[in-house]
Design goal:
Blueprint lengths: L20 E5 L5 E4 L1 H7 L3 H4 L14 H12 L4 E8 L5 E12 L5 E9 L6 H18 L4 H16 L3 H9 L2
Antiparallel strand pairs: 1-2, 1-5, 3-4, 4-5
Amino acid sequence: MKRKDIVPTNQERLMRENDFIVSKTDLKGRITYGNEIFIEFSGYSEEELIGSQHNIVRHPDMPRAVFSLLWDYLAQDKEIFAFVKNMSKDGGFYWVFTHVAPMRDKNNNKIGYTSVRRMPNPKAIPIVTSVYKTMLDAERSAGARDAIAASGAILGDVLKQKGVSYEELINVLQSL
């Protein structure tokens, strides 16, 4: 469960170039595995992470529409890449470039999700931050009921203005 008592700080943790944060969840987003780099950056112990919802590391600067898009992709059995700002247990933050994909058992039944995060391209972060701030502003203005639609419309406008798909935009940003 997401901790509501954590106050975000401006203390950033920078991922190292060779770091890979790996986690696995069940179909409901509960953490079933986290590697030592995930434990390090999150600031939680393995015991605190296992069984918790993955949103335990969700930073309040993340627009809800980004996670709605992520879950939409996963519901369609598609993988997704995204830039995500996570929050550590101490309120600090760390940016990741994440790849989330469905996991399947030997009978091809979906059993959960795996996420592999690495260092994002530092040149992309100011761009992503600006878009996410605009999306968050739209969410706040729209209110809880219409927040995701309002935020998603902002992202849709960005894609339309750039003339690219979501996947193309993410790939361009990571390769700047």
